Here is the input.
Amino acid sequence: MAKVPYVDKDECTGCGDCVENLPSVFQLDDDDIAEVKDPKGASEEEIQGAIDDCPAEAISWKES
Here is the structure.
């Protein structure tokens, strides 16, 4: 099983840091809440950086 990034929409504050840092992976939905647009849009290391930098701690890994 591969791990993919996951955004907990209940925890996301819509700050947009993840979208700003990795627009190839994340986007804001119509409610300005982050979502994963392409789980393979960046390396695991880059995605882990977005996970570590999320001020709301709303991004994590999920097994696919």
Observations:
- Residues 3-63 form a domain with the Alpha-Beta Plaits fold (CATH 3.30.70.20).
